[in-house]
Amino acid sequence: MRRSLPIVTPSSSQRYDCHLCGACCRAGFAVVVTDEERERIRGQGWESEPEFRGRPLFIRQIGGQHILAQRDDGACLFLGEDQRCRIHAKFGAEGKPFACRPYPFIFLPMSGQMRVGLRFDCPSVAASRGRPLAQHHADLAALSPQAVPAAAAALPPPPFRPGIHLDWHDLFRVSAALDRIVAAESLDITRRVLAWADVAGVLGGVKMDGLEGRALSEFLDRVVGNRLKRLPDDPLERKPLSGFVPPLFRQAVGLYGRLDRVSDTRVSPAGKLLRAGQRLAYSLRLLAGSGRMPRVRPGLPQVPFRAVERSFGVPSPEAAEVLTRYYRVKLGSLGFFGRAFYGWGYLEGLGALLLTYPLILWYARLFAIGEGTDAISAETVQQAVRVVDRPRGVAVPLGLRTERARVRFLCDHENLTRLIIWYGS
Ligand code: SF4
Q1: Average pLDDT, stretch 7-12?
Q2: SS3 for 76?
Q3: DSSP state letters, 278-345
Q4: What local confidence, expressed as pLDDT, does residue 273 receive?
Q5: Residue 112 has pLDDT above 80, yes or no
Q6: Would you say residue 61 has pLDDT above 90?
Q7: Which residue has the CA at smallest separation from atom 4 of ligand 1?
Q8: The overall pTM is greater than 0.70
Q9: Which of 38, 80, 121, 138 could form a disulfide with 390 if both were Cys (CB 3.0 to 4.6 A apart)?
Q10: Distance (Å) of CA 306 to CA 181, 241, 250
């Protein structure tokens, strides 16, 4: 039997329990099945049920892997009308492919422990509904050995920044220092994220010689302490976005909002051509930023681009609570770089995480306008977090070199600061 590593969940107020909404089964995730699981599911006799007759249960992907088949709308073939998994209903959790079972948890082995992150595309996670995470430890400990071999926890971390390596304990120190800023909830969220971006900027430029262990902790205490002291007086001056920033940011908006599904790969050549043409048209509209937001996924309000650009003020404490939880879970689990995020290094992954702040608030504005309100609420932020977190770490386009270059450009300190203030105030 494989040994379980100590489970470490983020120390935020985050809660979760599954409320059986079926959203994860409709999200178009590729559920990989092993040969043994394929045999087991075939043996469950689905082919004899009328709605499965003549339908393949699995799709073979390029590279030979098999995944669970999906319906044309991207939902899992096994999702029942009652929004429950039919395999689970008939054969229990053990009857399903293992890949379905940990969701929405993400196992992140490091330094002899199993850090656990969460996917915020799950509505119960976004709304923090259920038990505190500590109450899931026993279930997580039972699942984790099958999810990730314990040996993975002995692997060294990816670089802190190009050419600079820190050990896991030093990365824990950096994340804990950044978490201190995000957790300072008496201050508004936009100023907190600005301070976080500033400290990330300092870490990107400072000479790291000798900065490890205790010296690193003292350095971080000083930098974070000073930044927190100045934070209430930060002016939030909205400087217009200019140059390549608006078109490249809007393209990132489109990429994060896009819902790529496995069923997309099964369309006919003519359908593929049509889809490619549609994507090109969307991309050009996003670049131009005129007219209405194209419907890059079903259910998005089609709001004029212009309407999203006005000031909405700093998010209210209720809306800020959702964002605070989101960032504390990502920082606490270290689920924003390395194997959780396309193998990127620490600071590069941190940049992509910081960029989600203006992205989430862009979508929150879109949902608010779509609902006919002029304020961002906790609910609209939850909707936006669900959109923006869905592709992170799993959508192929976000891991491409072109996207890396875009993140680098938008996360240049001046550009990022302007984006945070523009959409965060
Ligand atoms: S999306 Fe979340 S709450 Fe809904 S069924 Fe999946 S795990 Fe449960």
Answers
A1: 89
A2: strand
A3: HHHHHHHHHHHT-SBPP-SSTT----BHHHHTS---SPPHHHHHHHHHHHHHHHHHTTTSBTTTTTB-
A4: 79
A5: yes
A6: no
A7: 21
A8: yes
A9: 121
A10: 32, 13, 12
